[in-house]
Known about the structure:
Layout: H1 2-9, H2 26-30, H3 38-56, H4 61-78, H5 93-96, H6 98-121, H7 127-153
Amino acid sequence: MVFVLAQVMVLGRIHLFGIATPLLYVYFVLQLPRNYPKWAGLLWAFTLGLVIDIFTDTPGLAAASLTLIALLQPYYFELFVPRDSADNLRPSLAALGSTRYTFYAGALVLLFCIVFYSLEFFNLFNWFHWLQCIAGSTVITLVLIFTFEIAKAR
Length: 154
C-alpha cells in the first residue's frame, strides 16, 4: 500500500530531465522472500501493477512488467543465495552483501525498465530517447532502493 501511495502521489509525477522516472514499486517484488509461493508472488505483483496502472493511466504496462519480474525473481534470487541459508531469507543489502545485492537488484530493475519502456514506446523510432529513459529510470530507481536498504539497516 505504501508503494502505491508513494508512486501515485509523488514519484509518478517526477520526470527528471524528461527521461528519468523513479519506479519504486518494483522494490516490492525484489523483497519477496526465498520459498515464497510463486503463485502468490505473481498474484501480488499483477495486482500491484494493475493498481499502479489504474492510477497512472498506463494501461497494462506496470502489470505486465511487474508480473514478469515476479516470475523471474525466485529463480534469479537463488543464484545469489548460499545453499545452506534459511528458507525464509529475504533479499536485502545486509543479507546478500553489497556486491551481490547490487547485481541482484540492478539486473531485475534494468529488466523491468526495459520491458516497461519497450511496451510504452512500442516502437524503436526514437531509440536514443528509449535508451535514455531506461538508463535514467534504472539509475534513479536503484538509488531509491539502496537508500531504503541503507536506512533499513540502521
